[in-house]
Amino acid sequence: MPSKILIVHGPNLNMLGEREINVYGKFTLDEINRDLQAKAKELGVEIETVQLNGEGEMVDALQQAKNKFAAIVINPGAYTHYSIAIRDALAAISLPVVEVHLSNIYAREEFRHKSVIAPVAAGQVTGFGKNSYVLGLMAAVSLIKK
Ligand code: DQA
Q1: Active site residue 101
Q2: Is 24 annotated as catalytic?
């Protein structure tokens, strides 16, 4: 039984640090991944991180995660709001999923209020900046230890 957790960063998250700083903050994706590695070590779990811009690439990565990982923490970026393909991939692999967002999607434009991913996730962490990922990882660990 694998005990590793896959962290998936979606489109445009490679631009953190230079992208809409007023919304997302000044930290970079590397800093988020470093925080996650530190938290994983503290929690005694292994993680792998991946950033993908393409919807199909994300579907491929999720399908391949099926027998390799125990849970998924995912920030699907803009795909959150409309990608049935990513939702279906998550449903197909039937691993515990935690959806995370840096910003509070419910406090932003109306088109961001809907997540098509949320119904196939165990839960959602939204609005805590880079801590959303750390909180998401903690949630994933508690799900696999259940
Ligand atoms: C985001 C929120 C999405 O609406 C947006 O398209 C992103 C980032 C977040 O982390 O706050 O790319 O997922």
Answers
A1: yes
A2: yes
